[in-house]
Task: structure prediction
Amino acid sequence: MRFIRSHILICSGSNCQLRGSLSIMHALEAELIKKGLYQEIRIVETGCLGLCEKGPGMVVYPEGVMYTRVTLADIPEIVEEHLLKGRFVRRLMTQPADGEDKLTPLNMSPFFIKQKRVVLKNCGLINPESIEEYIAAGGYQSLAMALDQYSPDQVIQIVKDSNLRGRGGAGFPTGRKWDFTRRAEGTEKYLICNADEGEPGTFKDRLIIEGDPHLVLEGMSLAAYAIGADKGIIYVRGEYDLSIKRLEQAIRQARESGLLGRNILGSEFSFDIDVCLGAGAYVCGEETALIESIEGKRGEPRLKPPYPAQAGLWGKPTSVNNVETLANIPSIIEHGAEWFRSIGTATSSGTKVFTLTGNVVNAGLIEVPMGITLREVIMEIGGGIPGGRQFKMAQTGGTSGGCLAEEHLDVPMDYESLSQYGSSLGSGALLIMDDSHCIVDLTKCFLRFFVHESCGQCTPCREGTAQLYNIVDKISKGRAAGSDIDLIEKLSRTMQISPLCALGQTAPIPVLSAFQYFGPEVRAHLRGTCPAGICNMKGALANADS
Amino acid sequence: MGKREAIAAFVDQPGGLIKALHRLQDQSGHNFLSPQDIELAAEVFDLPTASVWGTATFYSLFSMTPRGRHVIRVCESAPCHVVGSLNILSELEKHLGVQVGETTKDGCFTLEVASCLGVCGVAPAMMIDENIHGNLTPQSLAKILAGYA
Ligand SMILES: Cc1cc2nc3c(=O)[nH]c(=O)nc-3n(C[C@H](O)[C@H](O)[C@H](O)COP(=O)(O)O)c2cc1C
Ligand code: FES
Result:
């Protein structure tokens, strides 16, 4: 057996691949061979480490030193200094190190210390293309345990007791959804994993799949066992090439190992999974639109009820669950409901995966306990605002979430607290904006998204989003009056109650919250000035009633 | 492989029609679905032509008019907007001499805008065909485009 004295974990998630992680890996391999170290040092291709903004990243174990923004030119130095002579290459390091040997362990460094990794437990640690590594890390044990020891009803009870709520946006209790589906009449049932991920600013599901595809498959198998489905479908965005590849490969491996297919692990339970592709439509992330799309139709949401739990795919009882929701299941089964409830707050249990984007130093992927404050996420884990600028606002939950201002930085990030301020946890997107941006210009950008993505089926959404856009456009040109702001308010209230699906119902949220918390800045536009100097005010009308 | 055989395998799969349309578009040479493609899919899937039209026209990844050999999709969603996607778009328009929705005279590129591509970790971002390009700056574009010409 070959004695390995060091492991180098290189992120091969798509963000790091874009920054050249694969060529770094090949160069490293060549350098190790050249220096005669190839036998004692192993390179492992892993999933996302989280610091996407600073990719490509790698971690050298056993020391646990993380290097970021590694270039090809750095490779000889890393090999010569660190791997040969045991001296860290400080200029590439992310964690503080005082003196020669006082290294802050990676999990204690500012980026990681407040994180808690449940869903991302294997991300960045195992090779996502190897089922053996997943199994070695304890994978598929929860499935084996459930099939051996628990009835489907017991699995549902554990998930209910854990208080897990859906991570795809709506936050519906997962155990209850499964219960409805299990109890629905019919023997043919479906489990759908929603990996459509269209909410702007969200890329967690992609990185979960790329970093640990078997975890998602195991979560799906447990869900299918619970609800009594023998057929599963993963609906993935058509653009997610690497996710599709990793999923198809993982499914093949699981079939070969008897973890998918007939009589899994010698039990009565049979289950198999197909991959379906989206074709570029945000609304297809809505569960009934997604079902229409799998049936080969236009992705137009259905009128509810009946809910998918009663009549879903091909009219059969169906549970639609988000990737992150499902990725929580194996840990819940393994450690129990009590353990899960001990993470997070009393009403929002567990962790949440967030994607940080916009004007923040550490843009990327993080997983934190529910209830952490915005300030901790942005200023500590996120490293604050770059370029010496000031924090202006944060939008939680993606483009359909609310905008929050400086005074909300201490709001805990959980379902209840955020909804108090007119925002939501949503998909976990967190967009951070500095003081160079104009609130009206941003609102226009949010609305353009809804205008494009409205499926056009129902009038309040199709016309409402377009009219909201037109009015905000007028404001941005200094051609609006105070009455236009009232009109936005009125139209928004109508839209919150009348459209067929949550796309139209949530479209006014960013507008209402932005106008509420940044009122003076919006009203300045009525007088023909854009305080941030972004909007083009040529041709502005001077308004008396502002 | 002929088009008919290429899509026949999808008939019994969930989401098969969309996979078939992806395939037909990829094989068209001009990144689009022709009326003949729609007819063919309708026949193979045993569906009314109108419903296949309905499906095909719904999704932004399908085009009903011929496009360039390469399709550029620039993300215009908020996270990319905040870090300068508008500059990227206007630089592309200038460089290619086309507006959004148009194809260059040599038939090489079609310029489109898209909603979030799910790669906001490297914003501002665009896709050219199935390749992602991130951390774009107005200066980095010429070199990227040269790789496709
Ligand atoms: C317009 C719209 C888009 C949505 N997009 C997604 C998505 O991309 N991924 C997702 O998991 N849920 C999305 N949802 C929520 C789904 O309808 C559904 O609630 C979710 O998949 C259920 O899974 P969960 O209970 O595990 O969260 C979307 C909802 C709407 C209204
Ligand atoms: S916002 Fe541009 S890729 Fe997500």
